[in-house]
Write a structure and sequence with these properties.
The complex is a heterodimer. Chain A has strands spanning 4-7, 10-13, 19-25, 31-37, 44-51, 54-57, 64-66, 76-78, 87-94, 104-105, 109-113. Helix content of chain A is 0%, strand content 48%. The radius of gyration of chain A is 13 Å and the shape is globular. Chain A is mainly β. By secondary structure, chain B is mainly β. In chain B, the strands form 2 sheets. In chain B, strands 2, 4, 5, 9, 10 and 11 form a 6-stranded mixed sheet that branches. Chain B has a 5-stranded antiparallel sheet with strand order 1-3-8-7-6, with no helix packed on it. In chain B, a hairpin with a 2-residue loop joins strand 6 (53-57) and strand 7 (60-65). Classes of the chains: A mainly beta, B mainly beta.
Chain lengths: 114, 111
């Protein structure tokens, strides 16, 4: 059983608000990821981290930022939410050396910006 | 950039066998993973192929052919609970070892 947690599970927020989506894992994995997924669509990588103090932008342009101060924690922040940010955000982690083919996903945060 | 192609939807009946295909771009390709995602849920890892051939895990098997830039997921003895979206995901070394996901195949299992 994978131990990766996301809070909140659901969030409805007004335009212009600052929000932080939390992600924590208890598996000691070095690698962590944030994906954005619209209903019925593919997962798009928006941020990833291969260790503490290491963060990179993914393939999909995003106005969010991330930090990795502790191995187990990888929060994502939106400084000013917009309706275009409405989506599901999935956090994942992996720990198999150079091969990241098996990722463990959290339950996701469904964000609605009104 | 890399992209993976898979059918958008497949329908099959309970007890049948279904094959979900995935084609991928070869530049930097290292291996192919498969994930299952039930509606509204988290994706879960099913299998991985780095070498050509078939990998079997219970009712699910996955196949890779590097010469054809192609792989598939085979689901046998279909059950209603197998109704879900299935994603192939390519592991690309020239992308820093990241997974690139296909658009997903929605499988509907009918009684």
């Amino acid at each position: 059983e994978a131990d990766i947690y996301q809070t909140p599970r659901y969030l409805v927020i007004g335009t212009g608000k600052k929000i932080t989506l939390e992600c924590s894992q208890t598996m000691g994995h070095d690698k962590m990821y944030w994906y954005q997924q619209d209903p019925g669509m593919e997962l798009h990588l928006i941020h990833y981290s291969y260790g503490v103090n290491s963060t990179e932008k993914g393939d999909l342009s995003s106005e969010s930022t991330v930090s990795r101060i502790r191995t187990e924690h990888f929060p994502l922040t939106l400084e000013s939410a917009r309706p275009s940010h409405t989506s599901q955000y999935l956090c994942a982690s992996s720990g198999r050396g150079e091969e990241n083919y098996e990722q463990y996903f959290g339950p996701g945060t469904r964000l609605t910006v009104t | 950039g890399q992209s993976l192609e898979q059918p958008s939807e497949v329908t099959a009946v309970e007890g049948a066998i279904v094959q979900i295909n995935c084609t991928y771009q070869t530049s930097g390709f290292y291996g192919l993973s498969w994930y299952q995602q039930h509606d509204g849920g988290a994706p879960t890892f099913l299998s991985y192929n780095a070498l050509d051939g078939l990998e079997e895990t219970g009712r699910f098997s996955s196949f890779l052919s590097r010469s054809d830039s192609y792989g598939y997921l085979l689901l046998q003895e279909l059950q209603m609970k197998d109704s879900a979206s299935y994603f192939c995901a390519g592991l690309y070394i020239n992308q820093g070892g990241k997974l690139i996901f296909g658009q997903g195949t929605e499988l509907s299992v009918k009684p």
